[in-house]
Amino acid sequence: MSEQEQSARIKDLIGASTKVLILQPDNPDGDSLGSALALEQILMLQGKETELVCGIKIPSYLSYFPGWDRVSQELPTHYDLVILVDTSSLALIDNSIRSLRSGALSKSPLIVIDHHATPSSIDFASASLIEATSSATAEVIYNLCKRLGYALNDVARNALVAAILSDTLGLTTDNVSAQTIYSIAEMVEQGVSLANLEAARRANMRKSADLVHYKGELLKRIQYFDNDRVALVVIPWPEIERYSPLYNPSVLALEDMRLTERTAIAIALKVYHDGKITAKIRSNQGYPIAGTLAEHFGGGGHDYASGFKLYGNQDSDSLIKSVVAKASELLKPGDS
Ligand SMILES: [Mn+2]
Prior knowledge:
Layout: H1 3-16, E1 19-24, H2 30-45, E2 49-54, E3 81-85, H3 94-102, E4 110-114, E5 127-130, H4 137-148, H5 154-167, H6 178-189, H7 194-205, H8 209-220, E6 223-225, E7 230-236, H9 237-243, H10 249-258, E8 265-271, E9 277-283, H11 290-296, E10 300-301, E11 305-310, H12 316-330
Parallel strand pairs: 1-2, 1-3, 3-4, 4-5, 7-8
Antiparallel strand pairs: 6-7, 8-9, 9-11, 10-11
Bound molecules: manganese (II) ion (MN).
């Protein structure tokens, strides 16, 4: 079915609904959140009631989106239409899908709006608008509104632009088209301020002075091995206890570790009071070894981001030696 036909079906389904459940995948990001918040406004302007749901809690780095705290983890009891945004993969709505399938979803139609190229694994949708040429689901929604003549308000436009900027890292990813920029331009013309959106995002990234000082300490303790190709930092229990509620200490160090000249892979080890050790591993573009390294220690993940957990009283010094040795082995000698 063509985009036009899918859009027409979406219009009919929305027209016939009274209360719409707007669902995000179990890995919410700026695009899914901004898309959901924009749809909330768009549907409200169509006279619909809405409910925002996500199977997991919205992470705090996204709290610069006004309205993020309206997203509930609980499914409402009444709704007669579901719109799923930013995924067409069943696996990514695992937390919500079981209750949805057993509940009102069996009676309510489902609309999927997405931009991922992976073929949809949801075969029970009443309409699917999946535009793999769009940089973000928010861009798909903007185009849909233009096609259907749905009105936007300021809140919706700000949410859509913030969502597109988030998914495209500020319009710098390779799926950004001229069309993406035209859409942004139109919304800027209608009053969106990119400067205000960026200021809100940056204000949300601010850390306490205490945390900035601690980051300094962590950075001083980074150990470099193998001609700086392997960077490693150890975070002991007292620091986990003190700083984890504020910020993940590993994340605090890893970004700068990866930005070190010649560094291919960065590893943060957390040593807990009960002897458990966890590793968070990030590697740089061109060194897709993070997953393999983690697997060697019983963990897993992706080419560039992975982790592992070890229980029992590990000697952290010998663990460091074996992690560094394995990382060096995986980095081919001429790769630096
Ligand atoms: Mn997206």
